[in-house]
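Re: the 122-residue chain
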Amino acid sequence: MSLPPSLDLADIALHVPRFRHFFRYPLHASDFHDLRDGRRLLGYYATKPLYGRLDEAGRVGRSAGFNGEIAGLFVPSPARSFAHARLFFTRIRAEHITNAKGRRDWPIIRAAAEQHLLADLR
């Protein structure tokens, strides 16, 4: 399962304060993953690791590398709009954000997000 196609991703910023501050690029339906407790669908989430600091112009300073913080967007099920969507934040050790090849380690990033959301929803 994935995010319902009836949701217009362009509407996220209208409903979620500060969304554009953390997600500067548009999200796609494929960026969202199911959040389940057993077989029960709780909602959908998208995540991204955050960089350590901003440059002098206030833009993301990629040279600083990732700081271990993870920003996410959670859309509770049943998802008929983004009215109940919310940002969430969690943290893992900065060195766990990337794998041995220097690429983002998405399975670890998503696992941290899922753990955070499941604990928050219980």
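Residues 10-121 form one domain.
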